[in-house]
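Our collaborator T.R. sent over the components below with a one-line note: 'Predict the complex.' Nothing else. No constraints on interfaces, no templates requested, no preferences about which chain binds where. So this is a plain run: every listed entity goes in together, and whatever single assembly comes back becomes the starting point for the next discussion.
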Amino acid sequence: MQYKISDKFVSLKPSAIREIFKSLGTPGSISFAAGNPNPDSFPVKEMKKIADDIFENEPVTALQYGITEGYTPLRKLVSERLKRVYDIGTPDDDLIIVTGGQQGIELTCKVMCNEGDTVLCENPSFIGALNSFRSLGAKLVGVPLGPEGIDLEALEDALRANPNTKFLYTIPTFQNPAGITTTLETRKAVLKLAEKYDILILEDNPYGDLRFTGQDVPTYKSMDAEGRVIYCGSFSKVLSAGMRIGFLCADKNLISKIVVAKQVEDVHTNVLFQMICAKYIEQYDLEEHISGIRELYRHKAGLMLSALDRYMPKEIGYTRPEGGIFLWCSLPESLSLDEFVRRAGEKNVFVVPGTAFSADPEEESHSFRLNYSMPSDDEIDRGIKILADIAAEMLAGR
Amino acid sequence: MQYKISDKFVSLKPSAIREIFKSLGTPGSISFAAGNPNPDSFPVKEMKKIADDIFENEPVTALQYGITEGYTPLRKLVSERLKRVYDIGTPDDDLIIVTGGQQGIELTCKVMCNEGDTVLCENPSFIGALNSFRSLGAKLVGVPLGPEGIDLEALEDALRANPNTKFLYTIPTFQNPAGITTTLETRKAVLKLAEKYDILILEDNPYGDLRFTGQDVPTYKSMDAEGRVIYCGSFSKVLSAGMRIGFLCADKNLISKIVVAKQVEDVHTNVLFQMICAKYIEQYDLEEHISGIRELYRHKAGLMLSALDRYMPKEIGYTRPEGGIFLWCSLPESLSLDEFVRRAGEKNVFVVPGTAFSADPEEESHSFRLNYSMPSDDEIDRGIKILADIAAEMLAGR
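Returned assembly:
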């Protein structure tokens, strides 16, 4: 039969990155395309022991239906940690466990936006979030991202031009894809604009724990006196990505609506992994574990930056992230990004072209994203050399 | 601040059942309100061993990001079992793993329906599905359910009256809440109407494996020659509810859209439990395990039916399910359901009032749902006696 797909899905494409991800794994290939945490960041032995204990002592709690809000001990532990580490959480706030940060982002849009309402985002931004806004019929307006964060003038222009804006979606710390951290000054100015135009801020912070140099910048949520910020966090980059555990912290009036939205989406997040997370935090030292991951990524980012410094023609720009797992390279406008990505692929080196992160899919890009959490030390050096050689050849008109 | 919630969520309430579920657990209370599988149906020892092996031998596969379509070995095993047990699956079909049957239902509506499109459902029906259709702005039209399945005349009336109908949502086997199984004759007639009015059928079959008496009736999907049926299944009632593993089998053109919808909702379903499911099917005898669950529910349903036969005034009607976990009781119209449910609650016996399952929340109901999978043998006998006494008192005007 002929299927009549809904207007919102008839044209929505799968994420280019997840499609690249599927085609990887050719022997000898070097991938800088992933968004995955390094598997060394998974505390396998500890999780094995915890899982074993749960199956021995509390199997029914793990295997039976749970409540939509999440496993109560985990909600309590996450709230405590948010307060301790980020000064997040007021008596008006509540916290819900979601099936990965992705669900937190999607549920926020679902609960806030009617079709045609505007969502503002940094441009470039995380493709998974952009596609979830598109899938709900929101109008997506990208605001350029500069070295200090979102462009404030362009943000105010966008707010003026789109009075039906519901929220700004932002990854202020170690942004995906650009690796940029929004400065404190910019954050304060963005909060003021949010108040002035009465919009919410969806603060997505999956990488915030992964700072390996420089000083932490306060989160939007910690500076939020009015319940204007919805904070989205995740265990994907610090315990396991495959377990799909994230959380939202926001005013309880918003969380109560998000609970209803989650209930009709997947009832609740898998209980065993919520228990594993909770017991890991209770029985082990999560902060020490995270500092080990920071050390690993400090090393990997350092390797990639020195390879870029050493090999890359000076015409190619790149960000110097202070944390997270990505950096962002820009070709001069005279070079074709398509050709660069194609030639890299022919040499079995994979990067994600900037077009994949654009709020406007028709927009031209000269940038690409590099991931340093997954490749081996040797792959980083060899891969960057190959990319640098291609850039040099293209600059020389070969 | 004042929140401007989306039109679809501003009035949507949490599921009454899940709210009841939260308030249970008073010592001495008897709950017939759950929709939970009996914990004895969880193969705890086997899962413990499998989880242990996975953490020992393949931890990275379990803990790293997976692909949206699902863990490939599980997709293959589920497809094979669907073919073997239900004769489901053609070369044009594909299968996706989802985060519980609930997500399969929600994704189907998301991909098929524009706001205002009609979804038809049996009335009464599964509240979780009804709320997910509401949350997506679909217009919900209930069609009365009789002892042989959906009322065919009313179904055709509804199809004529709603030319923008996208699909019929049906639980043809051991229906939730009514416990009714649609006859083969009715199924064939429904399929013909679906063809005539060119709509899809979303066949939700979470209880299909749990027949304890009578003969299996062919699924809609097995009789579907045109790719008109989307089949939704689940491991919640046969391995574990808390692991949140379900699946959709449908034409590959539909599944490819559902993959995109799932990607923006939660990226993928937790991998560890997909691996546990797959390895359970490979290493143990799932059919034998299921036949143990059938035996348990045959026993429980038998107890409940004989208690009803023994104690309940003849004015109260009830269905005699051949499988699944629910039966459906109806008071005479002269008795108030509200009063009955309240008086039962005062005696610490909990049932779910029929209003919770109605396509039209304003509709009056005189029925309530009883679950027999969770209560103990003794609770079944005592609880039904209490309910029968209340009914008798109310009939006597006390």
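Summary for T.R.: The first helix of chain A runs from residue 7 to 10.
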